Amino acid sequence: GLVPGLLNVGNTCFLNSLLQGLASCPSFIRWLEEFTAQYSTEHSKSHENQHLSVTLLQLLRALSCQEVPEEDVLDASSLLEVLRVNRWQISSFEEQDAHELFHVLTSSLEDERDRQPRVTHLFDVHSLEQPETTQKQISCRTRGSVPPVSNHWKSQHPFHGRLTSNMVCKHCEHQSPVRFDTFDSLSLSIPAAVWGRPMTLDHCLHHFISSESVKDVVCDNCTKIQAEGILNGQSIEHQRTTFVKQLKLGKLPQCLCIHLQRLSWSNQGTPLKRHEHVQFSEFLVMDIYKYRVPVHKPSPKTPEETPAAKDGTAGKPPEAEQPPGTKPLFMNGASSSSSSFLMSPGTFPLAAFPECRAPLYLYRLMAVVVHHGDMHSGHFVTYRRSPCPRAALAAPGQWLWVSDDSVRRASLQEVLAASAYLLFYERV
């Protein structure tokens, strides 16, 4: 019921801990399998090893018990070699950051996808003659409809999400166009603790999306209103007002990586690590952080009149999901009696929710990366779910503690008591 460990070849615990966390996300492994299917088996092994996706998939399949490894301890240094081929300067003997490496991997996978040709060149006769080349992989300049592009060119990796940035003028309440920014992980700062109250993951998420005032911003609408009241021929100065800015999650990913920022600075400018515990739970509800298109004149609709949501679930008015000024259904990570059932392993009890308030964006904890030590030295370990079928039959929701080549079983209570640095959730 255990997974293979990873050899530490010189301060590579940052790499080993991240790989164990990624190996616990089945959606990411499935995406890699679909992505690497583009590479022909005719390629030589040396050529395949230059592809980050192929090397990463081989390691994750072995760490998720999909392939039986020859040894109990694997060597992941081949991944560092591929990253060096892709011009990343990573030293094997210097301590690195697991979160930084996560962004190196996701950005390198995006670069690898973008490097592939989306259109087959007409002079590439050999490629056109291959029987496995489907019509969908060939685009032609014709007057007719162009065949759809193959799926693996369009699909983003499962950690890809989008943030929305909303700006509203305090003076005239004019809303600027919503901006969208991509993210691979949510990097949350830990707000100042209130004495006697535990810090929860919800506190960090609310702090992340809390509105802030931005002063001295040019408002086109205020300038236009002033221009209408002034006679022609006079110069109009741009009206600068205060805007309210708020972040929301426009697109939630299939796999959600949450980074808790534990770096802080003293008054003297020296880096410090924040060691306080942030409570998190096995299941995470993200509905209240999701961006909804504002409805100016809401009208009551029956369930039959409400259009279905894009993800196939039953549609409902956006304002019914989280009325303004009300508390969320429960706090993610809070240890109150209303959410105590979250601490128990097994299937999430959806029956505990009223039918109208069932969460649409429900996530399950898959792995936790923990950093022991201070800002100058330390060690990364990982708590992760056991992927082995035998372990699942014996004990549903079995957790493992992995430190390089050391692997042992762990309880869910031990996992939830850890001082998390990276949290890996997967959408249910």
TrEMBL record:
GO terms for molecular function: cysteine-type deubiquitinase activity. It comes from the Eukaryota. It catalyses: Thiol-dependent hydrolysis of ester, thioester, amide, peptide and isopeptide bonds formed by the C-terminal Gly of ubiquitin (a 76-residue protein attached to proteins as an intracellular targeting signal). Gene3D superfamilies: Cysteine proteinases (3.90.70.10). One of its GO terms (biological process) is proteolysis. InterPro entries: Papain-like_cys_pep_sf (IPR038765), Peptidase_C19 (IPR050164), Peptidase_C19_UCH (IPR001394), USP (IPR028889), USP_CS (IPR018200). Keywords: Hydrolase, Protease, Thiol protease, Ubl conjugation pathway. The keyword Cytoplasm does not apply. Residues 296-330 are annotated as: Disordered. Residues 4-428 form the USP domain. One of its GO terms (cellular component) is nucleus. Its EC number is 3.4.19.12. SUPFAM superfamilies: Cysteine proteinases. Belongs to the peptidase C19 family. This is Ubiquitin carboxyl-terminal hydrolase.
